Amino acid sequence: MDALDRVVKPKTKRAKRFLEKREPKLSENIKNAMLIKGGNANLTVTQVLRDVYALKKPYGILYKKKNITRPFEDQTSLEFFSKKSDCSLFMFGSHNKKRPNNLVIGRMYDYHVLDMIELGIEKFVSLKDIKNSKCPEGTKPMLIFAGDDFDVTEDYRRLKSLFIDFFRGPTVSNIRLAGLEFVLHFTALNGKIYFRSYKLLLKKSGCRTPRIELEEMGPSLDLVLRRTHLASDDLYKLSMKMPKALKPKKKKNVSHDTFGTTYGRIHMQKQDLSKLQTRKMKGLKKRPAERKAEDEENKSKRIKKN
Amino acid sequence: MEGQSVEELLAKAERDEAEKLQRITVHKELELEFDLGNLLASDRNPTTGLRHAGPTREAELKALARDNTQLLINQLWQLPTERVEEALVARLPEPSTRLPREKPVPRPRPLTRWQQFARLKGIRPKKKTNLVWDEVSGQWRRRWGYQRARDDTKEWLIEVPGNADPMEDQFAKRIQAKKERVAKNELNRLRNLARAHKMQLPSAAGMHPTGHQSKEELGRAMQVAKVSTASVGRFQERLPKEKAPRGSGKKRKFQPLFGDFAAERKSQLEMLRVMNSKKPQLDITRATNKQMREEDQEEAAKRRKMSQKGKRKGGRQGPGGKRKGGTPSQGGKRKGGLGGKMNSGPPGLSGKRKGGQHQGGKRRK
């Protein structure tokens, strides 16, 4: 609904801008994340949420108070928060005896829960436990997924897509090569997922591309997959639908063959073959005497006809 | 001797090169998959090498990460770069991983009543100047808004017109007229909105599960699902207490089987007469109005196309061929062979013309 198409129109320009920022668009805003503590969150889980908030600044909101909800049973309060703060990604932390150090990560479509995956934290090393300099907030991280598990099961595939969505940051067209400082590395091994973040050090290597050295910097988590609540296939397809305007335009009249040659097709107008410019062969050129003789012949022919 | 030293030098240079390249090359069994638009790399190689590691796991993970990052950096350094304010900047391609949207695709708004009319007649908005010269204050003022050029509300004197009641309050009358205009505008806006909403609902709403559908949409979806079987829903069972749907078919009104004999006889004789008559029936006014409307539409469409084409690819040839079919409001059959196009005078002339002017309306095939 357009800001101007509501029954009650916004009275100020500021309100109108606020509504326009939140309405559905062709190319969307960067997804915000909300980080929520459950009723029984412990220190580990709280620290994890704070570290993820540091990674996701300024596209994240950290709620300081505890919220007594259970995401897997009742999603209405999550949806309410999402609507109020215009966030489509969320992370919910809780702790109880049955599920210790629990982290629910999920995303929304149209302010309703699309996917939700529950992960258990087995080991956690925080940002402040590793004492070195950190990179500035808001850097776009590089994401690397290792392990063939990420393509085998549907759960893992959705988890990979969820991680990319969560951590990728704004989509840019240019990037400063010296500003690539931050790597998030996800390894799937033995049913566990190891999440590590490193700071990049570019060393000289003699040629143009530098040699990489890594230094462990940020939060490192050992996660194990627990419950999942994935969207049905048709809802997922609906959420992936791309508007026609953004689909890549096909180039017409250009084709490639298997050897890599590019063929193009040009449409020409009809040529007047009598005026065609062919190769000039000097021997066939009419000499002036010959041309005169031809002209006289034509003239006499015309006189005869008349 | 010299030959040997030259050879040695060459060999040494080669070794140096190989060493340098070795520092940035990484050997992997399966190539990684890159999505440079998202700065993403996926390594499909199985992680069996790390299975046995216990205390050295961190170091092994770090080594794996270093290798993968090196490969990603190699790819990134091969992108086309440019220099922007003394920094080397690489141009990233479009991200290739498809991720779900956060909100649904915006729907195109249906046109308002005025927009439909303007489209039909080919009326384009006139470009107006921002400021207007105000005689009273002797300066340029804006056309509407705060301190506008001709402000009715600020007048201190209103002449009573000749035919008005001398006791009437002209100032109050003006304020009342303004209030009525505002209310009418608001009413039209709300009506346009209601029409737009009604138009949006029939378009397969409720067929896609979005999670927040109304009871009616769910009911309609259930109806459609019931009817979409091979026998068009004839053998679908209903739940024990479910009632049959009301009004789900098209309503057709038939005349009662026997009733008004005179009317029935008259209608049947009329039908026979029409069928027997060799000449086609033609309602001239209707036909001419239809023709005029179609011509208006064609002109409007042509003008729109020309302006669009002029904007996009300036200076190309005129519009493409004649557009087939008019507006949906024009459905229905044409009586009489109005085959060719009639030049009915300048376009934009509205209103009905009497049939007398267009005697040539009847064209026989």
UniProtKB/TrEMBL annotation, chain A:
SMART domains: Brix. Pfam families: Brix. It is found in: Nucleus, Nucleolus. Residues 31-234 form the Brix domain. Signal peptide: none annotated. The keyword Zinc-finger does not apply. InterPro entries: Brix, Rpf2. Residues 290-300 have a biased composition (Basic and acidic residues). It comes from the Eukaryota. Keywords: Nucleus. Residues 268-306 are annotated as: Disordered. Residues 277-289 have a biased composition (Basic residues). PANTHER family: BRIX DOMAIN CONTAINING PROTEIN, RIBOSOME PRODUCTION FACTOR 2 HOMOLOG. Belongs to the RPF2 family. This is Ribosome production factor 2 homolog. It comes from Rangifer tarandus platyrhynchus.
Automatic annotation (TrEMBL), chain B:
Residues 302-325, 351-365 have a biased composition (Basic residues). Its main location: nucleus. It is found in: Nucleus. Keywords: Nucleus, Ribosome biogenesis. Residues 235-245 have a biased composition (Basic and acidic residues). Residues 202-221, 229-254, 273-365 are annotated as: Disordered. Belongs to the RRS1 family. Involved in ribosomal large subunit assembly. This is Ribosome biogenesis regulatory protein. It comes from Rangifer tarandus platyrhynchus.
